[in-house]
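#struct-help
A.M.: can someone run this one for me? Single chain, 384 residues.
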Amino acid sequence: MRICLDARSLTPVMCGIGRYTLNLVKAIANIDSDNEYIVLKHPDYKDTIVDRPNFREIPLAGASLPVKSIMTSGSVINRFNPDVYHGLNNHIPFGLDCPRTLLTLHDLNWVYIVYTNWLETLYKRHVKGRFFTNAVRYAAKKADIVIAISRETQRRAIDLLEIPPSKFRLIYHGLDKRFQSGQMDKPPTSKLLKIISRVAGEQYIFSFGNSSLHKNIEGVIRAFNILQTKYPALMLLIVGRGDRYPALRRLVEELQLGDRIIFWSSVTDSKLTDAEIIWLYRHAKMLAFPSFIEGFGYPIVEAMSVGCPVLTSRISAPQEIAANDAVLVDPYDVASIATGMEKLLIDKVLRKKLIVSGRRRAASFTAEQCANATHELYQCPSRE
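D.P.: on it. Structure tokens below:
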């Protein structure tokens, strides 16, 4: 068969969907040397994903979600005559003509997120949001199989998109072996890690991921503010793309926390390697990840896999992914977040328990498991 994997969500600045894409493509290459694969790449991603004779990587303009890509790339993909097309990021281009089509549905977050002002709400929810909702509904109805990355995503998709439950398959994201083992090729020496070693040592709470409103970084900062007097050596490290750093920095100034919080942008400062991310998890007091909504929550299992205790939400996908192996808090209650943080700071027995059970929990989310389950779906007979 000729299988087309639309991997354009993988960009130089890694996000959760990009991480899923990278891990899946590499893991499929390890189990399938027979079928031919066409991997569509974002033009900005210059690295080779897989160096195998049955894999061909082709740059295709447009990220996997913008309007132009959805409207125009179907006819381009048709020229490759794939037997199977797998859209790895929530959409299938209009006009795609393929015997078998799969869709990975990560989340429907844009429908549920509350924005900061009426103009942003008008555009993102009622203009952009409606287009993407209709595009995802089209993709889910066109696909033979919809892969949901969590029960939470599947439940929301059934409710919102009116897709029959029989069309869904639940396949969780998987970690690659480097995160599973906590392997580092060499000790990291980046500027950020030098700053952390000098300023905070191992006395820091780690917040990792983009800073969109649904990530609740503001809640993390306000909870840290409750604890900061009681724990004068404690720092807060916020790492991500930096989308909302200006607003968050204003909050930090308002709370007079300027010397206690470190911001690091993977866009304007420098991109962190996997080894550096692993180092930051390993040396942190905890990962603070109290999101309002998630499709999965990659940092939860990344942190668990390398022995970093996790604080996350007792709602949405984080509760599903973390299960009983994290401190679960109410993300809408700053006091609940602060109480959870303090538990992990002072309760050594709890920390040790969660480190052990977290590693065991994370071990069930492997790239191999994700790839095998996905690969099986490629082999099913095409629809008539």
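A.M.: thanks! The first helix runs from residue 16 to 31.
D.P.: also worth noting: The longest strand covers residues 36-41.
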